[in-house]
Write a structure and sequence with these properties.
Helix 3 runs antiparallel to helix 4, helix 5 runs parallel beside helix 6 and helix 6 runs parallel beside helix 7. It contains eight helices and 18 strands. Strand 7, helix 3 and strand 8 form a beta-alpha-beta unit. It folds into two domains: 115 residues, no CATH class; 319 residues, Rossmann fold (3-Layer(aba) Sandwich). Helices cover 32% and strands 21% of the residues. A six-stranded mixed β-sheet has the order 9-8-7-10-15-18, with helices on both faces. Strands 1, 2, 3 and 6 form a four-stranded antiparallel β-sheet that branches. It is elongated and about 110 Å long. This is VWFA domain-containing protein. InterPro entries: Tad_N, VWF_A, vWFA_dom_sf. Pfam families: Tad, VWA_2.
Length: 443
């Protein structure tokens, strides 16, 4: 009699333990699947809500089987809510009715398992800085300019026209900003694609190589500093296939005149500096008498103390800096072509790194992308590798694994990434890595 009375109670207790444990496992798996779904939706919402929902369903299915522990998982339609701050709230809910094994004796043939998840996709203000130097026409992979154009357009297309913003900057002898940030959230993808199609890459000839990366970085920083209604996430992505050897400032000549332009060293150990070129153009010579094919060291009175291309009174970034931790620069007073050559090359690299560091200090992530084997070769009077500079610009934590760079890592500053595309086939994956990092930061 006692066993007859106790048996149903024992079966219910065993059923609670068994089916409850199964339900707990289903719930945990369902949570994992829903989390994956909302993250996938956040990554894909730039392509539209339909694309985001499709991505969510795909990742949901991949993370839980169609009959996990005799359950029937189902993802409800993803919901999107846009608030006044430009944030996208992405909500998902899912259920997985599960057949019971023992609780059915107590009338429970099925247990309902339900979960909810939410993530927020932040808008991003992206300054995209693209190398337009002629070396992209004549590198190890031949003319890769069309590849750079195509990959740049693919990259931009992954951002949302309605709430992200994109500013486009190109640089070679100087730098241009053909597409500044809009005054409102969003950007015109057609305009950016057209401007990328019109990239000049230093013209059709093969003039001496000018790489004025610091001018490109300054334009990116200026865009992010002056944009109205800035996003909480601000990013600079800069693409380069070599090392900086050119910088712009207002220069004083021995005859007392001044002119803002770009001056070049080169990639060799020594040489004859050349300039000036217009700082706000890809490849345009300064007018006479400020464009000097050779012998500019005999015409300059000195180097400016500060980088002052855009304002003669600007005093934020040093040109002359004898205390620079990597490349000290002293003034030039008619010391010969090699003396000026060395200083120009060092300043070109210093300014690029210094502007990147200032951006990080202001809460702007810097991501760097390099292409080709030249980045791994020592160039310039100090025989430095171009990729070392790109790693420092990003403040990539991988620096800690390199004894030559470990001391340059800034743990108190934002950390970005550097991706090296060893050849043109690796360019698309590197752009994809940049995108994945940015999307992770938006969530």
């Amino acid at each position: 009699m006692m066993m007859t009375i106790a048996l149903p109670v024992l079966l219910v207790m065993v059923g609670l333990a068994l089916d409850g444990g199964r339900a707990y496992a289903v719930r945990a798996k369902l949570y994992s699947a829903v989390d994956a779904a909302v993250l996938a939706a956040a990554r894909s919402v730039s392509d539209g809500e339909d694309a985001a929902r499709a991505a969510a369903q795909k990742y949901f299915n991949a993370n839980i089987g169609s009959s996990y522990f005799d359950s029937t998982p189902n993802l409800d339609p993803i919901e999107f809510r846009y608030d006044s701050d430009g944030l996208i709230h992405i909500n998902a809910s899912a259920s997985a009715p599960m057949e019971t094994m023992l609780l059915n004796v107590a009338g429970w043939s099925e247990l309902d398992v339900n979960v909810n998840a939410e993530t927020i996709r932040r808008p991003v203000d992206l300054a995209l800085v693209i190398d337009n130097t002629t070396s992209l026409r004549f590198g190890d992979d031949g003319d890769v300019t069309q590849d750079v154009i195509d990959r740049s357009k693919d990259f931009v297309a992954r951002f949302n026209e309605s709430f992200d913003r994109v500013s486009l900057i190109s640089y070679a002898f100087g730098a241009e900003n053909p597409v500044p940030f809009e005054s409102h959230r969003g950007f015109d993808i057609a305009e950016i694609r057209n401007e990328i199609d019109d990239f000049e890459f230093g013209g059709n000839g093969r003039p001496s190589q000018y790489t004025n990366a610091s001018e490109g970085m300054w334009n990116a920083l200026n865009q992010l500093r002056t944009v109205s209604d800035p996003a909480s996430l601000r990013v600079i992505v800069i693409f380069n296939d070599g090392a900086p050897n050119t910088f712009s400032s207002e220069f004083e000549f021995l005859d007392g005149s001044t002119y803002s332009g770009s001056i070049r060293s080169g990639d060799g150990r020594s040489g004859n500096p050349r300039g000036l070129w217009e700082p706000d153009a890809i490849a345009e010579q300064a007018p006479s008498p400020y464009y000097i094919e050779g012998g500019i060291h005999n015409r300059l009175a000195s180097l400016p103390l500060y980088y002052n291309t855009h304002d003669p009174d600007e005093q934020e970034f040093f040109v002359i800096n004898p205390d620079h931790p990597i490349r000290p620069v002293t003034n030039f007073t008619n010391g010969g072509s090699n003396a000026l050559y060395q200083r120009v090359n060092r300043v070109a690299r210093n300014l690029t790194e210094d502007i990147a560091e200032q951006a990080r200090k202001e809460g702007i992530y810097v991501l760097t992308l390099g292409l080709g084997s030249r980045l791994t070769e020592g160039t310039g009077p100090d025989n430095e590798r171009g990729e070392d500079l790109l790693v420092r610009m990003a403040n990539d934590p991988s620096m800690l694994n390199d004894s030559d760079l470990a001391d340059d890592f800034k743990p108190d500053q934002l950390q970005g990434i550097y991706c090296h595309a060893v050849n043109i086939d690796a360019l698309a994956p590197c752009f994809e890595e940049m995108l994945e990092v940015i999307i992770r930061l938006t969530i």
